[in-house]
Amino acid sequence: MSSPSPVELVTRGRSAAARLRRVLRRTILARRRSLAAVLAGIAVLGVLRAVSPPPGPTAEVQVARRDLTAGAVIERGDLERVRVPVALVPDGLVAAPVGSVLAAPLRRGEPVTDVRLVGPGLAAGFPGRVLVPVRFPDAAAADLLRPGDVIDVMATGSRSAAPGIVAAGATVAAVPAEPSSGVGGDASVGSTASGRLLLLAVHPQDAVDVAVSQVGQLLTYLRSD
């Protein structure tokens, strides 16, 4: 086999060099495209950061760790601390709710506000009304009521010639929990042998009638309107 001539060697060298240039050109072009895509992504991210508003201030609030029922006494384990935007902090936030009694159910994640507790702040949720504690003799019937229910209160007894409504359109503001009777430990929480205590929001003109009528018998009628 004869060795290649100098001309053939030069030709082969040029072909190899041409192939190498083509490979290098494709590699550089591919890398340029990748680099261009990366730079474009960085540019878009920079624009988004420039036009996005900076994060606003936050505040720490106490929220319910789980669903809590009306009448429950809030314990430390019922709450957890979370940070929320200042704009979302509700009015009437209670700074130290542990030991307070819930006037209405509290959902998991809901902040504790004054209108959810039995106390002075509860009246703010019922403008134009007064809060009156009323003990109903039929504890089983009263246990069916929930905060927010609108009822008519009817009085019967020796001081009434005939049954009559003493408070129309009263709203159940709270269903406080009451201790058990202590006899055998079987009494349900919130009801006793003498009935069931409810906190009602009534019209001012009805407050005296409701208070006086408690010497007799009280009945409740849940309204549908």
Task: Describe the model.
There is one protein chain. With 225 residues, this protein is of the alpha+beta class. It folds into three domains: 1-52; 54-121, Antifreeze-like/N-acetylneuraminic acid synthase C-terminal domain (Type Iii Antifreeze Protein Isoform Hplc 12), CATH 3.90.1210; 126-225, no CATH class. 27% of the residues lie in helices and 24% in strands. It contains three helices and eight strands; from the N terminus they run H-E-E-E-H-E-E-E-E-H-E. Strands 3, 4, 5, 6, 7 and 8 form a six-stranded antiparallel β-sheet that branches. The radius of gyration is 38 Å and the shape is rod-shaped. The N and C termini lie far apart (111 Å). Residues 181-193 have low confidence and may be disordered.
What's the gist of this structure?
With 225 residues, the chain is α+β, with helices and mostly antiparallel strands. 27% of the residues lie in helices and 24% in strands.
Topology:
Elements: H1 6-51, E1 58-64, E2 79-85, E3 130-136, H2 139-142, E4 150-156, E5 164-174, E6 191-192, E7 195-202, H3 204-213, E8 217-222
Antiparallel strand pairs: 1-2, 3-7, 4-5, 4-8, 5-7, 6-7
